Amino acid sequence: MLNIIVCIKQVPMVSELPWNAKTGTLKRELAQGMMDPSSRQALEAALRLKQDPEQQTVTITALTMGPPMAEEVLYQAVALGADCGVLLTDRRMAGADTCLTSFILAEYLRNHAPETDLVLCGSQTSDSETAQVGPQLACELDIPAIGWASDIRLTGNTARVERHVDDFLEVLEMDLPGLVTVDQGAFVPGYTALGGVQSAFDASEVSILDAQALGLEKRFNAIKDSPTRILDVYSPTTEKENRVLKGAAKTVVDRLFKEYGKTISSAMGKDLKIERGREGSR
Amino acid sequence: MSDKGAKKNKDIWVLGDYRNYFQSRVTLQILARARALAEITGGRVCALVFGHDVGEYAREYIAHGADRVYVMDDPCLKSYSVEKFSFLLTRMAREFRPDILLVGATRFGQEIAPRTAKELDTGLTADCIDLEIDDKGRLVQIAPSFGGNLIARIITPKARPQMATVRPGTFQERPHDDTATGEIVTLDLPENMPADRVRCIRSTYKPVKTRGIEEADIVITGGRGMGSKGKFKKLFDLAALMNAEVGATRPVVYSDWISHDALVGQAGKHIRPKVLFSFGISGAIQHTAAISDADFIVAVNKNPNATMMKMADVAIVADANQVCTGIIRAVKAAVRE
Ligand SMILES: Cc1cc2nc3c(=O)[nH]c(=O)nc-3n(C[C@H](O)[C@H](O)[C@H](O)COP(=O)(O)OP(=O)(O)OC[C@H]3O[C@@H](n4cnc5c(N)ncnc54)[C@H](O)[C@@H]3O)c2cc1C
Ligand SMILES: Nc1ncnc2c1ncn2[C@@H]1O[C@H](COP(=O)(O)O)[C@@H](O)[C@H]1O
Fold it and tell me: What is the pLDDT of residue B28?
């Protein structure tokens, strides 16, 4: 039996973030949540291992740390084929940076799931995109890790991973337990209509742990313990001449070339007018 | 391995990521910025090189602005190893206590930096698009944040070193200066090197693309507003005519209208063309953060209020496909006549 933990984050649906450009504020709490796409691909990788007929029996646990509403992504994970879900939630965990997120996730693995063979993470979440939680979790657990996997094969106790990074195509191997983060685009899930599946799960498959149940120290406080601090946040703006052209396509294109033809042709590396004659004689 | 008086160190360290030297200039780009930051803080710029037969890189980094290069040269460091390199980096940072540690956001950098930050109990800002020193001498790490709709300025008040990864293409490298002088400090490998738990079975050089969109003088980007994969193809025709490269927004690469390496934005490439054509793109910050260095922007969008239109030099309010076809026709005519 092979135990896989998939780390899943709930992220805000960014296109719907209520963001006020004037005041520079973001009402995060109003945003609708969804499963982070990279985490979804990590889950997909786990599901493919589970479906592989040559594979031993696979158990998938979806693990998330987040606010109470993050349990939604666990139900979704179970509906998609995970065996159970675990939510780590506590006010003292709120505001955790990647260092502390990986610490909290590691505490669960150490104290509650020591039998884990393989930890799967997405490469980078769509809201913070730090790509740090995976490597830091491996570091925290002191297990080998391979990032940006595009293919994962398990034979006995060994994971063989293929990846294409920094212009190198690599095949790497490690013994389990280990951690793998999956590359974006490598495990694209097929479309699943969740509507019907949603009702198929049993709420008992999701368990919830707070800081105390998890085994965190009394002093633990994510925000206070975080080494970085945000000074301020702003929306970038640029000052430009901003010439607006309107009308039929042909008209605007003519105007564009008439007024800015020089800029365009010099970037092209050929003077369009002189080029006419030369081109003809080639 | 000790450097007396290094306690109140102001040194800025840059990890030498040399593996893909000719394609990836990120280490040189960071060295240039580190040089500028060091002028303010009064520290030295130090590069680190771990590997085997890597002397040429050490000299190269000096020619590009490093005051000092720490070299660990050993056959056992012949190939890149995240575990070994982060072990060495952590150990050296503990010993020499640099004030700032910068790493290029290559895939390798993105693996080694978080591990090192974790070991050193310090913060790390990922994928910075700018770095500054504030009036208190602290490193201000500027990165797209909060779902990328915003830019955040982040500091590391207490923990040291202040760590950041920097997106390739963010800074401009300095010209190679053969007359630059710097010190090469060769260090011995520590005895308790960890064994590699990850075994490399095969590693083959396989570049994604030869001429990158990052260097192109003209870039043509298309967004969801192009309508379909078939219509998006028109941008390739235009690019061929203009000797340009094609870039895209995330919905476009996710829909597979073009491959993922054409992605322009926070999660993709940073571009700095002389002329940028932007077709059917709304202008989300994750995208625009990577195009702000374009000298001249022509945006086409049906919606005159789209952010992309506001930041354009020329904003064409029209159908993206029709304008694209119109430009193709105009360029063909200008070239053929
Ligand atoms: C963490 C994170 C990282 C991200 N990283 C990136 C990144 O690196 N790069 C990136 O691009 N995105 C990134 N995104 C996504 C980004 O937020 C936007 O969703 C994306 O850039 C929008 O792409 P778009 O402009 O093509 O689509 P849309 O926002 O849907 O805009 C389409 C535009 O086309 C216009 N349009 C429609 N029809 C026509 C027509 N016929 N003619 C002319 N105009 C038309 C519309 O008015 C609209 O303005 C990221 C998001 C997150 C959360
Ligand atoms: N709060 C969280 N709970 C569970 N998994 C997480 C959490 N944050 C990040 N991860 C995992 O770490 C990966 C990388 O996240 P990030 O470092 O935020 O880009 C994600 O794809 C998840 O697999």
Answer: 96
Pairing mode, strands A84-88 and B100-104: unpaired
DSSP class of residue B5?
T
Alpha helix locations (H) across chain B?
26-41, 55-63, 82-96, 107-120, 229-232, 234-242, 250-254, 285-288, 307-310, 320-336
Q: In ligand 2, which atom is closest to the CA atom of A137?
A: 12
Closest to B247 (Cα-Cα) out of B274, B205, B279: B279
Helix runs in A52-97, H state only: 71-80
Give the Cα separation of A152 and A173 in Å (integer).
Answer: 10
Residue B177: closest CA among B259, B287, B66, B268 = B66
Nearest CB to A168; choose among B206, B260, B334: B206
pLDDT in tens, B64-113: 999 999 999 999 999 999 999 999 999 999 999 999 999 999 999 999 99
- The closest-lying atom of ligand 2 relative to the alpha carbon of residue A120 is 23
Dist. CA A1–CA A270, nearest whole Å: 65
Query: Which ligand 2 atom is nearest residue A136's CA?
Result: 17
C-alpha of residue A170 to centroid of ligand 2, in Å: 24
CB neighbour list of residue B240: distance below 8 Å, 6 or more residues apart: none
The greatest distance separating any two alpha carbons of chain A, rounded to the nearest whole angstrom, comes to: 83
Of B82, B203, B313, which has the smallest distance from its Cβ to A241's Cβ?
Answer: B313
Structure-model confidence comparison of residues A6 and A32, the more confident one: A6
Interface test with chain B among A19, A164, A167, A281, by most B beta carbons within 10 Å: A167
Highest mean pLDDT among A126-130, B152-156, B181-185, B257-261: B181-185
Distance set, CA A73 to CA A7, B48, B103, B149, B320 (Å) = 11, 42, 33, 23, 37
User: How many residues comprise chain B?
Assistant: 337
Distance B250 CA to ligand 1 centre (A): 7
Q: How many CA atoms lie within 13 A of B321 on its CB side?
A: 10
Give residue-wise pLDDT tens across range A126-145.
Answer: 777 789 999 999 999 999 99
Nearest partner of A87 among A178, A193, A213, judged by Cα: A213
* CA of residue A221 to ligand 2 center, whole Å: 19
CA A75 to centroid of ligand 1, rounded, Å = 29
Distance separating alpha carbons of residues A240 and B152, to the nearest angstrom = 23
If you measure CA to CA, which chain B residue comes closest to A137? B115
User: How many Å lie between the alpha carbon of A117 and the closest alpha carbon of chain B?
Assistant: 15
> Nearest ligand, CA of residue B117?
2
Question: Tokens 């479906």 — which residue?
Answer: A51
Pick from A2, A6, A1: nearest CA to A180: A6
Tell me the chain B residues in contact with residue A145 when contact means C-beta distances shorter than 8 Å.
82, 198
Contacts of residue A27, Cβ cutoff 8 Å, sequence gap at least 6: A17, A18, A19
Instruction: DSSP for B51-101, please give it.
Output: ESS-HHHHHHHHHTT-SEEEEEE-GGGSS--HHHHHHHHHHHHHHH--SEE
Could you tell me the two tokens for A21? 């450009």
d(CA A201, CA A76): 9
- Residues of chain A with Cβ-Cβ distance to B85 below 8 Å are none
